[in-house]
Amino acid sequence: MDKKYIRVILMIIIILLVIIFGLLIYVSNIPPKEQNNEEIIQEYQYPELLDEEIIIPDNSYLFFDKYKDGKVSSKDIYSYINIFATQFIPDLFGNIKGKNNNEVIKYCDENKNQIKKYLEFENDTEINDLINTLQRFKVNNLKVQSMEFEERNIKHSNQYTMADLIIKYNDDIQLKFRVKVYSELQENDRNVSFSFIK
User: Which of 189, 198, 194, 171 is nearest to 82 (CA)?
Assistant: First the structure.
């Protein structure tokens, strides 16, 4: 009886081993789970859905590759850049076009907070450079045609990611700004700032 008992136990062990090996082979042959679109979007950090009117700068993927750990959403960054390029700069141009120096100074003083909301400048020379450049344009209005982050000038630090942004307007007008997007949300809601590059 001892031999029969040992034989039964050995058979049970062999059957269990066959079942375990069979399960291992079956599990290893299951094809990998297909990713749905949502998982792919999260994996590559594409921006949230944007308004149709928003112009996405060329080379944005390079910028966001460096900014990947930042707290400001890509949708907010695109929106801010678009408001700057399609509204703020054309409005500034429209309000200073054909004005004399005293009128420009008065306009800038009256709209100092709005200007500082978008533009970061260390001294009056920088804002004057932008105003003088805008006043040289011989067009009635500015309409954005395209935008592009310069590939070679995208830089990242712990505090912010910055890049040179070229904004192309109608009649081959081109303006260049350094865009700085902070990694952490700022108390003053100024998470994106621009400085004119002459």
Answer: 194
